Amino acid sequence: MPTPAHSSLAEPLTYRADQALAPGTLVRVPLGAREVLGVVWANDLPAPAAELAVQVRPIAGALDGLPPLDDHWRALIGFTARYYQRALGEVALAALPPQLRTLTSVQLARRLKRQSAAATVQPGTPTLEALSGEQAAALQAIEAERGPFLLFGATGSGKTEVYMRAAADALARDPAAQVLVLVPEINLTPQLEARFAARFGAEAVVSLHSGLTPAQRLGHWLAAHLGHARIVLGTRVAVLASVPWLALIVVDEEHDPSYKQQEGARYSARDLAVYRGHLSGAKVVLGSATPSLESWHASTPAPDGPGRYQRLAMPRRIGTAATDDPNAGLPRVRRVDMTRQPKGTLLAPPLLAALTERVGRGEQVLLLLNRRGWAPVLACGDCGWKSECPHCSAYRVFHKIDRTLRCHHCGFTQRVPRACPSCGNPDIGTLGRGTEQLEERLVELLAEVRRPDGSPVQVLRIDADSARGAGRLEAQLAQVHGGDVDVLVGTQMVAKGHDFRRVSLVAAINPDGALYASDFRAPERLFALLMQAAGRAGRDAASGMDSEMWVQTQHPKHALFAALKTHDYPGFAAGQLKERAEAGLPPFCHLALLRAEARTQEAAQGFLNAVAETAAEALAQGELAEAFSNLTWYPAVPLTVQRVANIERAQMLIESPSRMALQRVLAACQPLLHALRASAEHKAVVRWAMDVDPLAV
Ligand SMILES: Nc1ncnc2c1ncn2[C@@H]1O[C@H](COP(=O)(O)OP(=O)(O)OP(=O)(O)O)[C@@H](O)[C@H]1O
Ligand SMILES: [Zn+2]
């Protein structure tokens, strides 16, 4: 009973095969007029009645040069499809390398011949540093206990070393063992891949992510599937790779939102990693200096929390064990009250002075501004015109570099008008600031400043615009690591995971926007971003540089900044969890979002409300009555950015204290959703999607 990978059909299809095929075997099967890739899902079906048997088509061929996908993998795919409410075939397909879809059995055999044999792993090289006491204790616990573990290690506490030693232990224990290491965005951390390759040998490590060519992706996937790769390093898609001898899964920076897939099956790779570990008996280590509140709560011991994960703390930075100060080596946090600065100040004078001094001493400075472009809005002071996107409910951003107005939602781009398009006023201006403007201003402000060797100061901007193009980002990061850059300006991209050795001052230029955002996770995100940004400063304890994190804010007394000042993640988390418990928000309840897109807002909301009504009629009585009574359905509302590319977007929140109840009702809603979508009444609906455990609401 192979499941053809591309169909949106929920259930596997039945085919006939002359030879017995083990479950997990890849096959090519006819589907309508096409021939597609499939996976044998079960082979123990009762023979169909004679009159039906003639309708069962034979498979076109089996890719039997390849070992079948194992039970654990199939169970993982089955779980993912069920939990995230998607078709089995779709999830299986997304997990397989695209090139497999087109290969014939003969081509695959040829490809397999070229695949190199199993890599030999050199266990430990003699140049290893001695572990810190905290690192040694964490490793010992990982060795001795079952987990899953939350490695709660301060920035610069040496979590990567713990991952590598735990990996080395797992590989040494079993000559076939494999390790899966998940990272948020691989091109942001080229350093990490290099460190693993240096430690374990380049042949033993393969990467899996969307930046690979189709041929590389197939090659790396095969290396993992055949057991040749001992370490598989990848982004969220790698959690679904076939890794048959899996012994350890590491999820680095487990709080990172990019672990959540945002289209198709909207899975959380972090949550699936925990499930996968449970399925295949592999240990799971989630690591972060700013864990997600879900993982923090899960690792809180009874009676205050469920104690499902075991928390391992490494509060100290490497090289600071000799002092009594638990925050030794972490930057001193300074809040600048922007209400006391002249209106429109971009960089407060004391910050500019500190920055100038640091650069003059040959230290590096990192400025965080989470907004790309020159200014978020272009506006006319006379008639009130603003640079709205004609296709979206959003403003187009002014990019000075190529003099364009660009919509960051739909991509619509035009040249900047010379005068106000509405009233002809030639004197149009900008509102707000982005990274381009900050970069330009810094170059002006630092024009007279010299580095210790007398050369002019170098300013570099890193954001999604500067990083466009293959290899650009890696090259820019290499410039920073190489010391060619004095001031680095960037969006959240620069705050993540980098081991910058010479940064001694980090500043958040304007973080206030997120303080009062409507999403209940906004404070958690902001706190993590600022802690991580601060974590890029003063990483070389041996250099003796003191380091600082500056925060420019209109709300210097805000509790979030107070917690940041003392590097108090546990205090911040406790406050947030208390609020979440009182408000009945995750992790104390479970959410699903139903989204709809249509030509009109009315049609989008009408569809969602019809789903809620139909579900109530169909499910409130009968078998699912009790589960259904555990759910709260909120009315449909427009999304914050309501219209994108002329499509109206709406969503409906469904909430339950019981994950099980939510799962059962969502599954029962699937046929209702498909039927409603197909009905004439809702033909204006363009698409709908279900997001289980959504990250943003
Ligand atoms: N036992 C050790 N002795 C000396 N140096 C070490 C040791 N362990 C790690 N380091 C070094 O300390 C630095 C910080 O370690 P690492 O990058 O692993 O930190 P991290 O905990 O992952 O931080 P972040 O959360 O900021 O990414 C690295 O340069 C690493 O090589
Ligand atoms: Zn647009």
UniProtKB/TrEMBL annotation:
Catalytic activity, as annotated: Couples ATP hydrolysis with the unwinding of duplex DNA by translocating in the 3'-5' direction; ATP + H2O = ADP + phosphate + H(+)
Assembly, per entry: Component of the replication restart primosome.
Source species, domain of life: Bacteria
Cofactor(s) listed in the protein's UniProt record: Zn(2+)
UniProtKB keywords: ATP-binding, DNA replication, DNA-binding, Helicase, Hydrolase, Isomerase, Metal-binding, Nucleotide-binding, Primosome, Zinc
Gene3D superfamilies reported in the protein's UniProt record: P-loop containing nucleotide triphosphate hydrolases, PriA, 3(prime) DNA-binding domain
EC number(s) per entry: 5.6.2.4
Protein name listed in UniProt: Replication restart protein PriA
Residues noted as binding Zn(2+) 2 in the record, renumbered to the chain: C389, C392, C407, C410
Source organism per UniProt: Ottowia flava
SUPFAM superfamilies reported in the protein's UniProt record: P-loop containing nucleoside triphosphate hydrolases
EC main group: isomerase
Residues covered by the Helicase ATP-binding domain: 140-309
Stated role: Initiates the restart of stalled replication forks, which reloads the replicative helicase on sites other than the origin of replication. Recognizes and binds to abandoned replication forks and remodels them to uncover a helicase loading site. Promotes assembly of the primosome at these replication forks.
UniProt keyword Nucleotide-binding present: yes
Statement: the UniProt record of this protein carries the keyword ATP-binding: yes
Entries under InterPro entries matching the protein: DEAD/DEAH_box_helicase_dom, Helicase_ATP-bd, Helicase_C-like, P-loop_NTPase, PriA, PriA_3primeBD, PriA_3primeBD_sf, PriA_C
Pfam family membership, one: PriA_3primeBD
Family note: Belongs to the helicase family. PriA subfamily.
Cofactor binding summary note: Binds 2 zinc ions per subunit.
Binding sites annotated in the UniProt record for Zn(2+) 1: C380, C383, C420, C423
PROSITE patterns noted in UniProt: HELICASE_ATP_BIND_1
PANTHER family per UniProt: PRIMOSOMAL PROTEIN N (PTHR30580)
